[in-house]
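User: Continuing from earlier, I have the next pair ready.

Assistant: Great, send them over.

User: Here they are, in order.

Assistant: Folding the first of the pair now:
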Amino acid sequence: MEVKTIDTELLKKMFLAGAKNLDSKKEWINELNVFPVPDGDTGTNMSMTIMSAAKEVAAIEEPTIASLSKAISSGSLRGARGNSGVILSQLFRGFCKVIKEYDELDVRILNDACQKAVATAYKAVMKPKEGTILTVAKGAADKAAELADETDDIVFYMDAVIKEADRVLDLTPEMLPVLKQAGVVDSGGQGLMQVLKGAYDALIGKEIDYSLEETPSAGKVAVEDQPEEEIKFGYCTEFIIMLNKPLTNKEEAEYKAYLESIGDSIVVVADDDIVKTHVHTNDPGLAIQKALSHGALSRIKIDNMREEHQEKLIKDAQKLAESQKQEAAAEPEMPHKDMGIITVSIGEGLNEIFRGLGVDYIIEGGQTMNPSTEDMLTAISKVNADHIFILPNNKNIIMAANQAASLTEDKEIIVIPTTTVPQGITALVNFIPDRSASENKATMEEEISLVKTGQITYAVRDTEIDGKVIKQDDYMGIGDKSILSVGTDLMATTLEMVDQMVDEDSAIVSIYYGSDMDEEAANEVAAKIEEQYPDLEVEVNDGGQPIYYYIISIE
């Protein structure tokens, strides 16, 4: 088949198909992360970025290419999470800058848009690295330019571009040794490929479900197959919880146990941001009330398998959700100040430490849940200050913070490039309100460079990296730039990591123990460190962070 032009309707289908394809492959893409940590999130970040735009696109009733371009660009920019999500949003931004001027798209316009997309994305990255999503995008754009004068058939054109991009993706392990050692291609590049391949499927007329509804849960019992007298629990109840914060393993287990106490046919699928719930119960209100303790509800669906009281229960559930939403919105406005501080943190202990150091607003998130640009903008709107410092405390959040800064016009946003929580704490310790914003920026950036951070977690798969053979469930000590220790004993792996970090200039060791550890165990680690390094001052803090047993800083 041949396609010479793409009109508004086809463009919308292609974008939604690309978004759906990426979303369906996100867990597979997560598994391509180089470090075998239990928080691989490239697929999730890219999916949430593009789905933010897809929701805006789907909501346009009578679209034009200009209105679609605005929705794609704005939705992805504000929804961008993680470095891969921010780069994806910049690719869309550049692409849409070109196509918004036309009513139909042909090969030449698409080529111009591809070149602008890559140029915009490269410009957004301070130090572009080859072997990443940028390289894959550039490979696609180079092929697009080569073919622009050779064909006017968009099907042939796009097929060739995708094949070339796939070829470049396969070469990424040769460009980045860390990928080759881990035996994977670049996860961000693979995410981009899924967007392109989904869009191509729509272009050639492949039948696709363009709805953005969640995939139906497994285990749902059909009412017609179950006589009324055999139905133990009469209401099939489904909803999505938009989480206030990620559920710990304990909270998720308790939530499932509660649902089991009031019903059956239970399916609970939890992510960092949402929980999809399905349960058969005789009292949906109980399930809803329990869910509301974890966040706001969305897409509530209650089917009365005995055909009774359905309408009333839905209205009651909606009232409860609306009440929760109104209570959350009723926040007092902060008094105006010259300088304010926003930090990203996860774990009640760490949150308390940051509050004690004068932080004005805490964005819940971190390594296990990268906040979006929209989350940053929301925080900025809540802090009533002329100059606002943002401490991302994670290298995968810095780009989203910078993007939020570029979208803010009425306040000066200063992103301090903290890559770990201890760096964020050190930056705050050195913040002096009586100094100017520029003086504080210089001091904070200088001081965070003196902080070493190590984090203890576990491996989710076998791999070899940084010259270390790692088996699934091994403990790992991850430093600022590499894996420092691996082992089957938590204490030994932690002490080996610390030994790799200590040098002649070291003076203070700070231990932040996570939600899966307790103070007694952390004090044992501190005692061992003091025994081995009697000249060092060692302090223990309750961090409460998930995934990481210990976060340890040395200054």
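And the other member of the pair:
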Amino acid sequence: MIELRPRAAARYGAAFAAALMVLTGCSSGASGLRSTGASAPAPSPDPLTWSTCGKNLECATIKVPQEYTEPEGAQIPLAVMRHRATDPDQRIGSLIFNPGGPGVSATETLRNLPKTAGTPGAFSPEVLAGFDIIAMDPRGVGESHAVRCLTDKQRAEAAGNDFDPSVPGGKPLPRLLADAAAFTDGCAEHQSRKFLASLSTDNVARDIDQVRSALGEDKITYYGLSYGTVVGPMYATLFPHRVRQMVLDAPVDTNQWFGNSLPFQNDVAVASERTLNAWFKTCRTEGTAVCPFGAGDPEAAFDTLIDTLEAKPLKIAPATGDAAPGGELDGAKALETTRALAGDQSTWPLLTSALLAAQKGNGAPLYTLWSSVTVSPFPVPTAMFETHTAVRCADWKTPAGIAAHKAAATKATAEAKRIGTRAAYSALNCARWPAPNADRVTKPLTGAGAPPALVVAGRLDPVTPHHWAENMTRTLDSAVLLTREGVGHGSYGINTCVNKAVDAALLHGTHPADGTVCKTDTPATTRPLVPVER
């Protein structure tokens, strides 16, 4: 599972502010070939009919074939949004972007981009001036008939489930298997199996080409973040001559994505563990005068805190307003929140503050932040979980036998001491998925014939490890790798050096030398946001 991770203030929004208040004591055209068989030419779509839906925003709906092997068969509607180029005289063309997930709504992201400057994926004024930015909610996502497999009651029950952070998968295996059965049975009951089988990335790429055609564009420029770096190479492989320029930020190893999902999830767990270890190391290095959590041994203090919270959760009163309902903070929630905050060095001060508060019996900051973690690389009962699972199950090759999942769980917990339990058994839903996709594209996504792609990777990414970027650069027929030092998922929009390189690629098609490294703009610190009382 791939997650979109903007900086703290933008990503966590009201939750960030509410947590800070608690800490401070304040109140508050033609289809390409599949790996098996060929798709018939899709009918040319009608031009899009736009209507105003916000400041400088226009919305439209496009109907595309549910299956491109049956172009005259069932059609499905997809939501499309356009942010018009702010300087029409300098307009270059249309830039289509996918912000990740899978499950993140591109239209919602585009609507909020002006409010989230300084976050991964936020376009510069120069790019906004030169391009119409096009957001398409992929099939099964957002306003394009988002997948739902559970009733509201089931979703609420899942959110209230008690997870044990010391147990692989958070629950005994029989309960995990029962949960997977309930989830996949719900998907089969509430969704068309043909629709579920159609949610594959190759169909998303074909949908993008339908949008390109409906826009009247001969070629598109593309920016993809996280899972969007699977969509981009797929499009470049199926439609190489329709690509003007392509930037792939926080890249996924596409060979792993379409391969066995168990090693894939293990890589994610290890990457997340490394970013948590980086927070521990920085805390120790900065010393107790800067990072007082743990009095010089933050690992031991953290483990003790998780065990203590799991044994005796902290009761949380409802926050003022709509920031967070009441509940309790247990070890599992504290671990998940820590995983998310440790994965972005800009949120490290907030993490330190929240952990210190929890040590003193105030669990409200961690709990408030937990309630805002909407996307995770591992199963959590969030609004996007169903969509996310459906897309990856349409793409992934997941072993059906439980023995393989047991072995993977053992490996994950051995290689990622704290985060490994989160990854364990996280592909069970795909193991018994009710809508297998027999004709998914499985060939390497080389993008042969497309212009060179700019691949941008963080050195310590909590979701897409750096070696995935190296593998993507080798897999693509032509690509340049740019590395950003530091911890975080996504680089464009948060780093001056990266911003210049990405803008140059998108606007002018020029790239830095392969292997160029960008330093962080701001050194990482674990200094708490709120001064510690001594």
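Worth noting for the second one:
Residues 245 and 509 are 6 Å apart (CA to CA). Residues 261-286 form the longest helix (26 residues).
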